[in-house]
UniProtKB/TrEMBL annotation:
Species name: Streptomyces globisporus
Similarity comment text for this entry: Belongs to the nitroreductase family.
Entry superkingdom: Bacteria
Protein known as: Nitroreductase
Protein keywords: Oxidoreductase
Domain Nitroreductase span(s) in chain numbering: 26-221
Classification via Pfam families: Nitroreductase
Xref: InterPro entries: Nitroreductase (IPR029479), Nitroreductase-like (IPR000415)
Length: 243
């Protein structure tokens, strides 16, 4: 697997502002401690709310942390989660990424870990998935439509199906939030490391037990510069008409 630096050509791609934004939207972990105006934070949430939600259920909520005392209490939790990640999955560079580039990424992760208490804003997307409304007639019709093998597969993959259904309701909005941040000149990156200690995060933030959290997104003014992303070439990832 190889990666290439992708720099958008707005005139060729046909969407000047959007494509340029996407092609320079790197994960930015080095943040200045300067506060982000509340109106800009609300613009990010507005962008997230505009995102599509599976089934149009719109059962999302967003916890926005800007209080430095709350952030200071979250910092030890963040450190534990990052240290756990770097000791396991994050111990080795991904295939196709050279060690020097990965070293720079780890250094940025460690910088964010060590300066987390100074994070200007943290956004935690939450979702409470409604209980499904099922009846015997509908279940029987579903079984007929899927057939025996399909019904059995659905039963054995229900947990994954539920997780993907929830994710489809949340992550399009999160992507909108990240795009909006880049468009406003703000640095942001999506993480899910907090899930390793989700109950402790939820307790600290007063998030109800039946509300699931899906990300922790630190936001602030970038200490570095935005630049072209490195991604796999399009020709390497397309399977036309079939695998």
């Amino acid at each position: 697997m190889t990666m290439e630096t992708v720099q958008a050509d707005p005139s060729a791609l046909g969407g000047p502002a959007l494509f340029d934004t996407m092609s320079t939207m790197r994960a930015m972990r080095r943040l200045k401690p300067d506060a982000v105006p509340q109106e800009l934070v609300e613009q990010l949430i507005q962008a997230a709310v505009w995102g599509p939600s599976g089934g149009n259920m719109q059962c999302y909520e967003y916890v926005v942390v800007t209080d430095r005392q709350v952030m200071a209490r979250l910092a030890p939790l963040w450190k534990r989660c990052v240290d756990a990640y770097l000791a396991t999955t994050g111990k080795y560079a991904p295939e196709g990424m050279d060690e020097a580039a990965y070293g720079r990424m780890v250094a940025a992760i460690e910088y964010q870990r060590d300066h987390f208490a100074d994070t200007p804003a943290l956004i935690v997307p939450c979702y409470r998935f409604p209980e499904p409304r099922l009846d015997e007639e509908g279940l029987a019709a579903s079984a007929r439509a899927l057939g025996p093998a399909g019904t059995e597969h659905m039963m054995t993959t229900q947990t994954r199906f539920q997780a993907l259904a929830e994710g489809s309701c949340v992550y399009p909005g999160v992507q909108n939030l990240l795009l909006a941040a880049r468009g406003l000149g703000l640095a942001a990156n999506i993480t899910i490391w907090h899930l390793m200690l989700e109950q402790e995060w939820k307790k600290e933030l007063g998030i109800p037990e039946d509300m699931a959290t899906f990300a922790a997104v630190p936001v602030g003014w970038p200490a570095g510069n935005f630049g072209p992303v490195r991604r796999r070439p399009v020709a390497d990832v397309i399977h036309r008409d079939r695998w």
